[in-house]
Specification:
Elements lengths: L3 E2 H8 L2 E3 L7 E2 L3 E2 L10 E3 L12 H6 L4 E4 L7 E3 L3 H15 L4 E6 L4 H11 L6 E3 L9 H7 L7 E5 L7 H8 L4 E4 L7 H4 L2 H8 L11 E5 L3 H4 L8 E6 L6 E8 L5 E7 L3 E6 L7 H14 L4 H10 L9 E4 L5 E4 L6 H14 L4 E7 L8 H14 L4 E5 L2 H13 L4 E5 L5 H5 L7 E6 L6 H10 L7
Parallel strand pairs: 4-5, 5-6, 6-7, 8-10, 8-11, 9-10, 11-12, 12-13, 13-14, 18-22, 19-20, 19-22, 20-21
Antiparallel strand pairs: 1-3, 2-7, 14-15, 15-16, 17-18
Helix pairs in contact: 3-5, 4-10, 10-11, 12-13, 13-14
């Protein structure tokens, strides 16, 4: 964790200290933007949103140990007052990055798989040197400076997840931390309603590789034409990954065990290969592993070491294909951190692969941020659920959950479908329905709150059946 004095932060941000008795007092525990996460020694950033103004919580945060507040106006408490807190955060991030001894910044983006791939890199790159990665999904203009501050001065590999909700967002993030490696995973339908189409998403994601220098590395998905085409937009050396020998890093002999965990032969070009046996659930992790392998080998890590690290990797983030086994035998797959049609498809495929004779149950919440594609997207997922062979579907939410449920019934009139108005209605909906022989997938957009439902269900407090 990097540490700076309040006077240094004021100088970096162009701010002024107000009500600060000791300008040399130090921020030792980074930055937080949520007053509930304040710890002694941190700086609290007072962001003014549409519904909540962080300035209203300034007194509480100082009382809880914040050394100062980064604010856009005086708050009658120790504060660094700046014109724009977001721009000040960016300035702090750039300053913090400059304090690292010799960092290699790895930026990654994509419509799906960012966090899972980031978690793999967190377990592979330490084989090359000290590594720090994005915490949770801190992948925007607020989260990136927080992540950088959490690095240590000797961090060699800084892995930064970069998300975008529109054109120019990733370009802005690259001005805070210019990547030496740019990894683009895929172009899907996440946030398609905000972007206006997949090509617009691709244009936004390409902002990661466009500024790369000639001595940098662009890692691109050869199986996604929109990503592969980004090779023409960068000056950097290009390394590709994919499911065939047309890619630089590729896989074949893919198999799944009874729990849906993939094994495959990892290839680097035509002359080098190594066996990988993953501990993660779902065939989609093969692509994530290939992406991580392409980055690591591109940075000089031997293929055998990469394969060993991938084989030992485990799930680091809750809500991402997290398997919860109850004492009574019920298995819950918590994949409820977020959802879009693409991630729903891979989750349903993984559920089928993990069944191993169990009845499969899918508790699916609504998908947000699909814009005009929302109805079609939910209809598609309803059909996918019916075709995937699930024994029971629970559709959670409002009108779009109705669309999903109706499409599933139309696709398979024999499918057992239950409706739940929201996450709070799920316990009653599944009470007495689930058995110890079931495997239950819980997935929906973050705003549906189904992650909490999955954890309750996995703990045995929801859906018990004699």
């Amino acid at each position: 964790m990097l540490s700076f004095s309040l006077e240094a932060i004021a100088a970096v941000t162009g701010g002024r200290l107000t009500d600060v008795p000791d300008p040399s007092a130090r921020m030792t525990q980074g930055i937080v933007t949520d007053s509930r996460e304040v710890v002694p020694g941190c700086v609290f950033v007072a962001l003014a949103g549409e519904r909540v103004d962080g300035h209203d919580f300034a007194a509480r945060t100082v009382r809880d140990g914040a050394v100062a507040v980064l604010a856009s106006r005086p708050v009658g408490l120790p504060a660094i007052v700046v014109d724009d807190t977001l721009k000040a955060l960016a300035a702090i991030g750039r300053h913090a990055l400059a304090e690292l001894t010799d960092p290699v910044v790895v930026g990654l983006t994509g419509s799906a798989g960012k966090t899972s791939t980031k978690d793999l890199l967190a377990q592979v790159l330490p084989g090359l040197g000290p590594t720090s990665v994005t915490d949770r999904s801190f992948n925007g203009e607020i989260g990136m400076p927080i992540t950088i501050l959490r690095a240590s001065r000797d961090t060699r590999y800084l892995v930064l997840e970069m998300g975008a909700r529109g054109a120019g967002h990733i370009e802005n993030l690259t001005t805070i931390a210019r990547p030496h490696v740019g990894l683009v995973l895929n172009i899907g339908t996440a946030h398609v309603g905000e972007f206006g189409g997949r090509q617009a998403i691709a244009d936004a994601k390409s902002e990661l590789v466009a500024p790369l220098a000639a001595d940098s590395l662009a890692v691109l998905n050869a199986d996604d034409p929109l990503v592969a085409g980004m090779a023409a937009r960068t000056k950097a050396r290009v390394r590709t990954f994919g499911m065939g020998n047309y890619a630089d890093v590729w896989a074949d002999e893919v198999t799944l065990d009874e729990a849906g965990r993939p094994s495959f032969l990892l290839h680097l070009g035509s002359d080098s290969n190594a066996r990988v046996r993953m501990g993660l659930h779902g065939e989609h992790h093969v692509a994530n592993a290939l992406a991580a392998a392409a980055v690591a080998t591109g940075l000089g890590m031997p293929l055998a070491d990469v394969a060993e690290a991938l084989s030992g990797a485990r799930n680091l983030t809750t809500g991402r294909m997290e398997v919860l086994d109850r004492a009574d035998g019920l298995r819950v797959v918590n994949d409820a951190f977020n959802a879009n049609p693409d991630s729903m498809r891979v989750a349903l495929k993984a559920l089928a692969a993990m069944a191993d004779g169990r009845r499969t149950v899918a508790i699916l919440g609504e998908m947000k941020e699909l814009g005009p594609e929302a109805e079609a997207g939910h209809r598609e997922v309803g059909k996918l659920a019916a075709d995937s062979g699930v024994g029971l579907l629970v559709a959670v939410g409002g009108e779009h959950a109705d669309v999903l449920a109706t499409a599933a019934r139309e696709q398979n009139p024999l499918l057992d479908v239950i409706r739940a108005a929201d996450r709070d209605a799920v316990p009653a909906a599944v009470e007495g329905v689930l058995t110890a022989r079931d495997i239950v997938l819980v997935k929906g957009s973050h705003s549906t709150g189904l992650e909490a439902t999955a954890l309750l269900l996995g703990a045995g407090t929801v859906g018990d059946h004699d």
